[in-house]
Write a structure and sequence with these properties.
By secondary structure, the chain is mostly helical. The protein has helices at residues 9-40, 63-73, 78-90.
Length: 92
């Protein structure tokens, strides 16, 4: 005959198994989240030198190119485009 000596019995093993599975799931989830955080921090960052200062604006694109795009999209009219283009070329 078995004597459990005041132990948890069969139910204790079940509870201990469930707690261990939950603990391992938590540890694995934490590791996956840490790896995702560390790898996503570098996403979108392109290696290389920064764009030169001066005629290049945000992202290394020329201000004249940005102005031409705005004109092509219809955000500014022809008079404003010519006025701003002349201003940009004046300041070089």
């Amino acid at each position: 005959m078995m004597w459990y000596d005041g132990g948890w019995g069969r139910g204790g093993w079940f509870v201990m198994t469930v707690v261990m599975v939950l603990f391992l799931a938590l540890v694995i989830t934490g590791i996956v989240a840490l790896v995702y955080y560390l790898t996503s921090a570098h996403r979108g960052h392109q290696p290389g030198s920064p764009p030169p200062s001066g005629e290049y604006g945000w992202g290394g694109r020329r201000a004249e190119d940005l102005l031409a795009e705005r004109f092509a999209r219809g955000e500014i009219d022809e008079d404003e485009y010519k006025r701003r283009l002349a201003l940009l070329r004046e300041q070089r």
